Fold this sequence. Notes:
By secondary structure, the protein is α/β, with parallel strands linked by helices. It folds into 3 domains: 1-69, no CATH class; 90-232, no CATH class; 240-358, no CATH class. The protein contains 10 helices and 11 strands. A 3-stranded parallel beta sheet has the order 3-4-5, with helices on both faces. A hairpin with a 2-residue loop joins strand 6 (208-209) and strand 7. The two termini are 32 Å apart. 20% of the residues are buried. Keywords: ATP-binding, Ligase, Magnesium, Metal-binding, Nucleotide-binding, One-carbon metabolism.
Amino acid sequence: xxPHLVQVRERIRINGQPISKDLFNKYFWLVYNRLEETKDPAxxxxxxxxxxxxxxxxxxxxxxxxxLAVVEVGxxxxxxxxxxxxxxxxxxxxxxGIDHTSILGDTMEKIAWQKGGxxxxxVPAFTVAQPERPLEVLRERAQERECPLYLCPExxxxxxxxxxxxxxxxxxxxxxxxxxxxxxARTWLQRRGCQGLGELKExxxxxxxxxxxxxxxxxxxxxDAMIQGLRDTEWLGxxxxxxHGPVTWYLDGAHTTSSIQACVRWFRQAALNQDKPxxxxxxxxxxxxATGDRDTAALLKLLxxxxxxxxxxxPNFTEVSVANNAxxxxxxxxLENALTRCLENQRTWTRLLEEKVGQDPxxxxxxx
Length: 368
């Protein structure tokens, strides 16, 4: 996905819903014409795709008078075009992974430095459990920018004294995302002076890492709205199970080694925990596509233990579309380049199978 799945309007939502076609059309041309009229004649260029949509999103939110805008960075943080907000209410950094290495750097520490670029003086920031060195980098960035940084407690800490929380998003990795979301939401509600947010729970005394304090944010008693929010959350295309006649699709957008590992754990739990019939009535097919400068060999290696019967490598171009949706077109990559990438992935997969790599880190013995 790019990151919209079907239509570009998914990128700009109000109350969880993509803005209407009429609103999108209205604000698109308003912003486009304003930029066209005011651009520097000597350097006559319009903003690139993502930058334009970012400008447009801010304009939409201002014109539609939203109370709260949740803004996700495009790539990194420090030099990302979303990072023009001088005083956000709160910032969050989710679990770090190796991605966009040509822009962000090829180590977790370099990527952490980029992510920490969203920290602002006096603005609280939260992150989840990270490897030691990247967490150190985040802490150093926070200290440089005089930003109070907190570590989110595990979701288990919120479940004490109540039933286990039900998450709308499948996969164990979503628990750290949920814990982060709860801290961000509470910070916003506190800022708005909301009452009845539940009592804070005591923080354990051992909240120092490597001798330098990273305060652990306190867990708190969740409101009914928070519990419902976690339960009702939807994210199409991520750990999504879609039944279509005799075929069941297991869809995910994982594109880093850590997220592929999380995806495989979910897939095992959702699909592979039942024995496969031996009469050939069920086959397991991997449908794989990757874009950009990602190390697809490293990603595919993690998928080998799933024991697929077939693998199909495809581009993300749709030659036949019922809706004839222009939102699915990609002008940055030619079809020829995409097909070449598919052939490379196919060769990599064949080699991995021949080498019988991919020891199964999740089950004691491989599925047969």
